[in-house]
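Hi there, hope your week has been kind to you so far. Please have a think about how the structure follows from the sequence. I've dropped the whole record in just underneath, so have a look:

_____
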Amino acid sequence: MAIAPAIGLDTIARFDPRAAWTRFDPQPIGNFAGQRCAVPHRDGHAHPLAERAARALGEQLRCDPTMASALGRGGKMFGVLVVDAGPEGIGWLRAFSGMIARRWLIEGFAPPCFDLHEVATFWPSGEDELVALTERIAVASVPEREALLRSRKERSRALWDRLYRAYRIADGGGKFRALDAFFSGRPPSGAGDCAGPKLLALAQHLGMRALALAETWWGPDRPGRQHGRLYAPCGHKCGPLLAHMLR
């Protein structure tokens, strides 16, 4: 699972979203026809197949020094989605929340829910501009610093608003909505970037049927997060999106 370079049109052209798919071996026994996607309970308890996939993901992360180096001393919420790939059988997809090492794309994981080509035309330059402003703020005089802080806040907000408009959130019938359509006012920070929406969007893109979802924290324990434990998707950010995507 190699980390891709920073997002760019050349990166997107090489990125293979199907690399996020793993077939169960041995295949699970049972008839999954007509089964609705099982979402974890509030306590994190998930479908047995989702738990199986989460354990397999944990083993992959444990044996991947590149990912461990990228995460550093922090942690990250990861997700798995059990899917029916038709003739190819039952398997699972994997995703991480947000970014890792300032990267949206990592080989073997689901991409974000926004239009990658569109974002590649403005996000890197926008980030560079914010970094430059931060450096100027660090050495500016007090009056100049206040003006630069206001400017940075405005530029950052405009950059994120443009990113929100690039999201494409589809329901089971292929009806798309932009991210800001799910919230009154500006979307909360990180909305649309959690593992659950990424996984469902990738399953839709690949023509796979979602069967069961699980999310797990990987990294040092912190308040509300324990290493290796399963969690339900966050209700305030993911809830409106998942309801739409599972419709």
